[in-house]
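Forwarding these from the shared drive since the link keeps breaking.
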Amino acid sequence: MISIYTMCIDKLYNEYKEYALKHYKRHSLGSVHVAFIIKHKKIIAVAANKVGSRSNGSGYSAKSLHAEKAVVKALGDMSQLRGATLIVIRVMKGTQEINYSAPCHSCQCFLDKAQREWGLRRVIHS
């Protein structure tokens, strides 16, 4: 039996496959993480990991901006996180398959803060 979780990830992947593919064609990474913020059954923000720096405004890392932080930055208004769900999927380059995703320590701390201080309801990683 297919779980609700699997159906949700598959649906998001199918809807945003082209978005994900467009993002990882821009860089040589082996995979791309795409993050979605969903509230009231609507996607209110979408972003992917990307190479960044403090000088171009990522503000979080000297080398890259992870999808978890990029999607919150794209949302812009932290109050919109209250009651929302953040979903991150990892798409492998070449095969275009969904693969296991987990937050790094920095992103996990950021997500914990988002849940504690801004009311983010749930975080799901593929």
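-- next protein --
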Amino acid sequence: MTIRWNVGDLPYGRLVVGLDDVRRVALPLPRTYERVVRDRVKFKVGQLVYLSVSPDERSMGFAFPKEERDGLIATEPGKFFPPVPSDERYNWVRVWLAELDGDELREIVTDAWRMVVPKRVAAAHLGAHPDPTASG
């Protein structure tokens, strides 16, 4: 069950992005499947997790280059926040779902998926031409 809060201080009382929205974006992506692990809904390609929704569905961790993590958090510290200390070694960052709109969600999910899927699969799905020099 997805919890959706109607946040009165958001423009036009828009609904907050929820787990169902994450599913609608993630599950059509090639090779993606969903699993629940320790009360977290995770979206994976093979054994690689690229999204993880918190048990209360208020936040989501996602694959993101760790070299760029601090810069992302610094640009919008009320939206993005660091992973738990045990996950800092991974390409991972977290976001408050209430701070996202549909376009941002789509971009985050797609970019995270691209980090774990072979480049040729991403290129074929997104309609781009794969880089012939890239492995994957």
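The chain has one domain: 11-124. Residues 1-13 have pLDDT under 50 and may be disordered.

- D.
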